[in-house]
Amino acid sequence: MQEEEFVSKTQIKKQMDDRQDLGMQLTKLSTDTLKKIGLDESLYEAIVFYKKINSNGALKRQAQYIGRLMRDTDPAPIEAFLARLKGDNTAHNALMQRLELLRERLIDNDEALTTLINQEPDLDIGTLRTLIRNARKEKELNKSPKARREIFQVLKQHFTAEKSSDNDNNADENEHN
């Protein structure tokens, strides 16, 4: 006979609380994102219904119900999906920070523009030069940073379009292999 591992009441309660917390994280996601996870139908409906409730007491009861449904659900795929979702945000935030730094370097000196032109020959250089000139003028005159924002948008548009085309090329290569 095989002995069962002893699990204390406290550990069971902690697991239930963790599952309910995971369920509450799911309530913060959009319905489209929830569909991507592939949740059990009753859990999905409970989460969607939670979003429609306004009453505090009813919210607490529905949270308890979601926690109850989560006990019967394997948390590993949900946790993995949420981790991937947070990872995407982290990568996006890092890209935005790099673009902000690049924008500041472009405004501060011309050598950064020359380097960028050499690295990214398909970038719209004329527009970028004009925006940099306008941003420097705005900085001198203490005007609102309209050109700085436009520089950021041009860079963002270029680098996110480039990234998505790289992903498309990788997907095409994977399909052919």
TrEMBL record:
Keyword hit for RNA-binding: yes
UniProt xrefs under SUPFAM superfamilies: PSPTO4464-like (SSF158710)
Stretches for region Disordered: 158-177
Location within or outside the cell: Cytoplasm
Principal cellular location given in the protein's record: cytoplasm
Keyword Transcription regulation: no
UniProtKB keywords: Cytoplasm, Ribosome biogenesis, RNA-binding, rRNA-binding
NCBIfam families hit by this protein: PRK05255.1-1
Protein family: Belongs to the DarP family.
Function: Member of a network of 50S ribosomal subunit biogenesis factors which assembles along the 30S-50S interface, preventing incorrect 23S rRNA structures from forming. Promotes peptidyl transferase center (PTC) maturation.
Protein name: Dual-action ribosomal maturation protein DarP
Native species: Vitreoscilla stercoraria
Taxonomic path: Bacteria, Pseudomonadati, Pseudomonadota, Betaproteobacteria, Neisseriales
